[in-house]
Design brief:
19 helices; about 10% strand; three-stranded mixed β-sheet; three-stranded antiparallel β-sheet
């Protein structure tokens, strides 16, 4: 159970965590015109590794990604301009990104000899704010990836390449595929397109996620209960999308996830990252294996490194040279307002303290009043156990599954089973110990949302768990006065209202649609205009 801490210390001591040469505010981002970094505790080397670190995601063969064309065009699918339209951040060739792919694309060698392209943490958890032509990169911030649109575009490109003879010929020529092997290559393209299309349809929803949101729990539930277990009727629409959460300070909290459902004690971080890796184009072979564990595509060694890097990450500080000077008198007045209006839930911390250990505050759904769909979907999700019926919930221990179970218990079971296959003894020990930690650390009926410290809150718009409020100024107004519709995806920032600037670019967010409600969180909404400005100034300074 000490594996997470041991891995963290080992990596940090090896020079991969906090380094003597950290990035400074204003340093240029390689390959990203007019983009600069902020000081967040990482060196350039660590940042480069994190942006392209694989945890075992297998989307399609890596060489395919480099030669695949966009459907209906001869432009490469991996062209930076094309992927930028889907929310990816462009990047130059570097040591860990030899082909100049956008932030978040990964390479993973497979046991079959194929090197796979996938998506890593940074695809969703690297943000940018833009102001007056200046782009400010935010490590661990909310990305703007339109996950559904990306997946759909990739499926279209694979299908078009397989069906269009001229496009297929260019693709095969680029790969250097001999004529005698081209039928096999076309069949492989069709098979991959069909497999991704099955996944895409499995996760279809009536309300589009848009930029910067994903129903991670819903898609994890479907990956395990439908795909891994082979039970199609377990499919549930993953229709409670939430904003990609910011990652700084998250490894230091006692509980994580928007509903506080995951403990950060002991092996907790390993299993949170493991379930994410399984859902993001990972795989585990469940049906044909027993209590010795489940073979999977997970790169456990890399998960340990990622955890260490994230532990060392700190919140971005408001860059006065780019976004404007802070008013210290307003900050002083705003601090008292913060303590009165916000401090009971959003604890003040020293964001630069490497040993910070804040406690999350869990507010019941009935009290917070924000959109309930994420909480309800988590609580209500049950599934047929299929091949897991009769197996112990913790693989080696615990009660045995009946014909049905809470879907989260199936997810935890598969995660433990995948960890048991890892040869490192400490990982196996963590797997054995995780289920008791989970059961002891949280209420098994988490009908609440989590409040976290607000370090770096200025850089985490839009607000509330589902991203339904574009600015902090809007959040400090009654729900009826908040925007009913706004656009997300441009990254344009408004320093005065602290959040998304009003633009005509990006996807439309309509708060009247299911799961998109912007009500609740009424704290501070009765402040005077002057007090509201003072509180906003203090929030900028966190």
């Amino acid at each position: 159970m000490e594996w997470c801490l041991a891995a963290t210390l080992a990596v940090v001591l090896a020079g991969c965590g906090r380094t003597p040469d950290p990035i400074a505010d204003g340093e240029t981002v390689p390959g990203a015109p007019q983009a600069v970094n902020l000081a967040q505790g990482w060196s350039r080397e660590v940042q480069d590794q994190v942006w392209f670190a694989s945890f075992g995601s297998r989307l399609l063969p890596y060489r395919w990604l480099l030669h695949l064309e966009v459907a209906g065009d001869t432009k490469r699918f991996a062209d930076a301009a094309h992927l930028a339209t889907l929310g990816f951040l462009t990047q130059a060739r570097t040591t860990h990104n030899p082909d100049g792919l956008p932030v978040g694309f990964t390479r993973e060698p497979g046991k079959d000899g194929e090197t796979w392209a996938g998506l890593g943490c940074a695809a969703c958890h690297t943000g940018e704010v833009r102001h007056r032509g200046q782009r400010i990169r935010i490590d661990g911030g909310q990305g703007l990836l339109d996950f559904t649109a990306f997946e759909g575009a990739l499926i279209d490109s694979l299908s078009a390449t397989a069906s269009d003879d001229a496009k297929f010929a260019r693709f095969a020529d680029g790969l250097g595929t001999p004529q005698a092997q081209r039928t096999e290559l076309r069949d492989a393209l069709i098979a991959r397109a069909e497999a991704l299309d099955v996944r895409h349809r499995m996760n279809a929803t009536d309300v589009a996620y848009g930029a910067g949101r994903l129903d991670a729990f819903g898609q994890i539930f479907n990956a395990v209960a439908v795909d891994f277990l082979g039970v199609p009727e377990n499919r549930r629409a993953p229709d409670a999308p939430v904003s990609f959460p910011v990652l700084w300070t998250a490894p230091h909290l006692d509980l994580v996830q928007w509903n506080g459902s995951a403990p950060n004690a002991g092996p907790g971080p390993l299993f949170q990252n493991l379930t994410t890796a399984l859902a993001v184009y990972g795989h585990a072979d469940v049906a044909g294996h027993d209590a010795t564990g489940y073979p999977s595509s997970i790169n456990f060694d890399q998960l340990g490194r990622i955890q260490a890097w994230m532990y060392a990450l700190t919140a971005p500080q408001w860059p006065e040279s780019m976004l404007g000077k802070l008013d210290q008198a307003r900050i002083a007045r705003g601090a008292a307002l913060y303590d009165a209006q916000c401090g009971a839930c959003h604890t003040r911390i020293d964001a630069r303290d490497p040993a910070r250990a804040p406690k999350a505050v869990l507010t019941p759904l009935a009290e917070i009043g924000t959109d309930p769909r994420m909480v309800r979907n988590f609580l209500d999700a049950r599934a047929k156990t299929g091949p897991l019926q009769g197996r112990r919930q913790a693989v080696l221990a615990g009660e045995r599954f009946g014909a049905e179970a809470n879907t989260i218990d199936l997810v935890v079971h598969v995660a433990i089973g995948a960890a048991l296959r890892h040869p490192l003894a400490t990982v196996r020990d963590a797997a054995v110990g995780y289920h008791p930690v989970l059961k002891a650390a949280i209420d098994q009926h988490p009908d609440y949302y989590k409040a976290r410290p607000l370090d770096g809150v200025w850089a985490s718009a839009p607000y509330l768990h589902n991203g339904s409020v574009p600015t902090l100024a809007d959040l400090l107004r009654p729900a009826a006065a908040r925007p009913a519709r706004f656009r997300v995806g441009s990254g344009e920032f408004d320093p005065d209202t602290v959040g998304l600037a009003a633009t005509e670019d990006g996807s439309v967010f309509d708060t009247r649609l299911p799961g998109n409600g912007n009500g609740g969180h009424d704290y501070g909404t009765a402040l005077s205009d002057a007090d509201r400005r003072d509180l906003l100034e203090f929030l900028k300074s966190l």
